[in-house]
Each structure stands twice: as structure tokens, then as C-alpha cells.
Design brief:
heterodimer, A: six-stranded mixed β-sheet, 18 strands, globular, B: mainly alpha
Chain lengths: 416, 291
Amino acid sequence: MSDIAIKAENLSKAYQLGDFGTGTLSNDINRWWSLVRGKEDPFLKIGEANDRAIKGTTDVVWSLKDLNFEIKQGDAVGIIGRNGAGKSTLLKLLSRVTAPTTGMIKAKGRIASLLEVGTGFHPDLTGRENIFLNGAILGMRKYEIARKFDEIVDFSGVERYIDTPVKRYSSGMYVRLAFAIAAYLESEILIVDEVLAVGDAEFQRKCLGKMSEVSKGEGRTVLFVSHNLNSVLTLCAKGIYLKNGALELSANIDEVVRAYAKERDTEYSRDVKIISEGKQAWLSNFKITDHAGSEHLEMESPVLIEVEVESTAQFDNIQIGIGINDYNEVRLLTLFSKFYNKAFTLHQGSNKLSCKMDRLNLKPGLYKVEIFIGSDHLNLDYYSSGLQFEIFPSLNTNHLLPDSSQGSMFVNQNWF
Amino acid sequence: MDTNSTNQEWDLEIKPHDTVFNLHLKDVWNYRDLLWLLVRRDFVSFYKQTILGPLWFFIQPIFTTIVFTFVFGKLANIQTGSAPQPLFYMAGTIAWNYFADCLNKTSTVFRDNAGIFGKVYFPRLIMPLSIVVSNLVKFGVQFLLFFILFGYYLIRYHFFGAKEPVIPNWYILLFPVIMLAMAWLGLGIGLIITALTTKYRDLAFVVTFGMQLFMYATPVIYPLSSVLNKYHGIIAYNPMSGLIETFRYAFTGSGTFFAGPFLYSLAASILFFLVGLVVFNRVEKNFVDTI
């Protein structure tokens, strides 16, 4: 089918920054006055890209700017981008929670959006009553819900509690029930935000399974936003990559993920912020690459770490420690030259120390690095200012990956 | 592909602005089940974990009537016309509460539901409509109470020769119109207020105490006839006056039917309702950004 399910034309959305209050009333009057005279909104003229890192000159910011894309019927599309790239704004526009500032979206078929699970759940109502209420909020007719009621209860696995008020549910049960309702929506287009970050592993798998069933099996259009490149890769065939509110790339998911990964690579470019004050030696550069020198590390890549240390004098018997933490600051791995009774001598000036490994056995994700330079008695530098690197999923593996509850490591396994 | 997409029929177009009078009523109709479920939710959650349950709907008007009868009737000795005082006050109270609840609840509909509205689309008008229907049902329950009291005084007057006359008349046929007009008025004003308070909340503070004061500018605790000459301005321009007075007159026969104020009230209700709809409709698309 080559029919277009969603088409965005010059889609833009502007937001006003800062607090409403002083200043906004006069702006509002000003704005109203120009509208009355048939002029353009004076506060929207100056278009600024939405880069939260840069201080702007106006307090109007374009969260999305001139977006054009088409999504075909039956496609599963992953929307990726950094925080603040406009993903959520796009979802909000698509799900009609808020209106675009300019431009238009055209859609064919019913749109159901899942920006959150359990929207409108009333704590005092029972599971049964909430299924009907929530289903209706999501746009289902009562008879549709009644027809699917048993399936929903079955999928959620909370049958025993179905006549208990949901405020007595465990948070897991609550989410299960909420997702189950959404999973049985009958809409041609389904929009899903990162709601899968909830529930236990078994349920997450079930949700992903259900979603791919929806897109692949039933031929419905699915839009999926996630920071988890893994689930985007497994679920989606097409991808949209947003950057600072503009469309960077709309293509096959592999291509889009690769472009995004490359961008992230430069963003987390292992840049060391040199902090030399009061130190005799300090970390001046950190590089993590594969053996061929590429900075795009996939799961199975062999790894080479190069540490550069700037020293003001000569030091003997120096150890290098490299701690790798996950994003919750849990230490996963420590590389330490002392483990191998290897000591370095730092000379005055720049020193390069390297470590080579077959692989890190870390599953795809973002990792933080801490680096220690010193000896048993001497702490020359301890660098923990947010060095990061990322492991990307290999695009051509034949195995699944552990989810968040199954640990951070992955080793190749040979089952027989 | 281009020709394909230009020829295509779209079910939905999401645009920055619609025409002012596109109220998406078809959409509202499609979501009618939600309306009923919301009303149901309001009721079920109201008496969950209470011992008296739905009886609470009766308690408020009973006690208000008792207090009003005592304070305004006995202590302040305000003329209530020929009707028995409890009946007079209860008629005023339940009708006024119905209107006031409609207005109060709809005037905060954006703020109260910002969470839901920010996450999922359904025709926003469903929410205020469900409030009005909920209140209508609540009024229905309270009207039952009024009806019992009404029956009691009616029988007492006709069969036991009590002094206070209760003479229902044909204006009772206007009852549905009155209910509708009060709903329109409450909904209309409420919608305007909620639309105006998405960005600046000042007005919301006025509503809470304003409604209390507004009650005294409405013939709830006194008959319209007693003030019409003296304070003609305030009371007669208040669109609630004609409605409450007609409601009470139709059932008790106390007072007179003022055709002028009634028609004026009706017209004002419709006007407020339409303006409210348009304003609400204009604001609903973007209020999430500012609330």
C-alpha cells in the first residue's frame, strides 16, 4: 500500500519561554492589537531554533520548525532525537493535545495516542469501571470496549483484582491494566510515547510484542518515540530523526539510527574538560575506539582506550584506573593497570597510556567513565566530570538483547 | 506519490486555527459514551467509601432549607409571599445550587483537567457537558426531595385547610425550559471564565466568592416582587432572576409570572451559552501550553 496515513506540511510550533505574568499582559495586548490590524504576530517573527544550550534573545522559541514528512499506511515509524529535539511536541501535535502554530497535519483514519498510560484513571473506581472510562477517553465506544473486555483483562493479568478500586493496585498492576486498554484500541494510527519504561521485564516484552503485532500483523500505522534505540530498532521499519526542532532525516530506521548515533558520537565526543588547577598531572584526553580507530562502538567491537596525561614533572610507579558506570552511577567494570602489576612512568609533558580489550561485553547504552591517575600513596587526578561513551547495537546480530532488568552485560553465548 | 497524496481524502486535518463557529459537534457526538461514563464516574466516586452514600445529596438541601427558614424567615423576617417558607427556600436553594455548581465546576474545567487534556485528545466540550449532566442528575435527586415537600404542603393546603396556599399552575410546563436555560447560563459563563483563566488566573479568585454574593442579587431568599420596584436595576438585569422566580411561581403559585424578566433571562442564557461555546472552542486548542 502506498497510501499516506499522515502528512505534515510546514508544521511549526512556537512556545513562550519563561514565566507568565509581568510583561506577558502587555505582550498579549500588543499581539491582540496587531491581530486586530491584520498584521503578523510581532512576537513570532524572530525565528530561533530550539537549542536549549544557547541563550536566546527572545523568549519565543520554535519547538518545531517547518516540518514536512509523510508516513505511509502500515508503517512503524520510530521518532528519535535528543532531549528537547521536539519529539514530544510532535506527538502532542499529532495527538491533538495542542494545535500547531503554523502548518498542518493531515491524517487518514482514527488516531489514538498513548502519551501516558492510565490517563483519566480514577483511583476510587474499580478496574472494571476504569477500563470503560479510560477506553472511552481514548476514543473507544462502549460496545467496542465491552467486546474486548475479556481480552483486555486477560492481557493485563489482573483478573483477580478487577472489581477492586485501582488505588489498591500495585503500581505494576496499574500500569499493566492501563497498557492493556491501550493495546486493544481500534485505531488506524497508534502513537506511543516512551510508556514502555514501566512494568516488569516480562510485561515490557509483552508490550513490545503487542506493538509489533499491531504494526506488522494488523497493518496499522504506529509512531513510536523512545530513547531506547534497541526497542526502536526492533519495532520500527522507518525512522524520523529530529534535531533542534527540525527534521534531520526521514528514512529507513537503520539509516536514521546510524545518523543519530553518529551525531551523538560527536556530542559525547569524549571531550575531556581539562581541570589542571592545583594538580601536578591531569587527564588531558580520553579516547575509546575500536581497534581500527572508529569511534562508533558496537556491542561486539574490540575496544581500545587511550588516555592522555599531562604532567608537570616525572612520576614513577603510576597506576591508571578506568571505572565504567552505568547511567545510574552503578559501577559495572573497573579497568586497572594494578590488576596486571603494570606501572607507568609519567614524563614531563604529554603521556599516552593505552589499554586494549577484545570487547567490553556491555550491552548497548550510554556509559559514564571515571578515571584515576596515581599510585597507592599519591592521587594525581581523579576525573569524574561526566565523560561518556555509548555502545550501539549491532545492526546484524542474530540474538536478542537483555532488557533493563536483565543486567548491563552481554556475553556471546553458545547454547547446545 | 505526489498525485496520490494530493488526490487523497483526509479524515482529519490538524490546523492552527479553525473557523470560529466550527464547534466539532460531530466529534462530541462520537464521544457520547464518554459523556455518560464521566457522569457515572462523578456519581460512583461521590459516594464511594461513605456510609450514607447517595443520601448525601439530600442532606445539603435539607439543612440549607432549615437554616434559611430559620435565619431569613424567622430571624430576619423576610417576606416570602404566600407560599410556605420551607418550600419557598428549598425551591430557591436547589435551583440556585444547580446553577451555581454548573458554573463553578465548568469555570475550572481547564485547570482541573489539565492532566488529562495534556495527554489525550477528546472533544474538550465533553468535560463541561458531563459536569452539567452530572449536576442535572444531582438536581433530579434533590428535586425528588422538593417534590415530596411540595406534595406534603399541597395535601395540607387542599385537604387539611392549612393557611399557606400552594397553587401550582400551568407555568409548570416551563420547568424543562427553565432547567435548560439555567444550564446554558451556568455553562456559558463557566466556559467563558475557564477560557479566560487559562493564562491569567485572577478571575478564578473572583468566581468563588463572587458566586456567594451573586446569590444575594438573585431572588433566592426573597421574592422578585419584593425588590422589583426598589432595586430594579441590579436584580432585573441579573439573568437568573427571571428563571428562579418563574420556577418557584410555577410550583407554589406564590408571586407572579414576570414575562419580561423571564424572556430576558432566556435570551441572556442562550447568548451566554453561544458566546461561551465559541470562546471555549477557541481556547481549547492551545490552552495546554499556557495553563
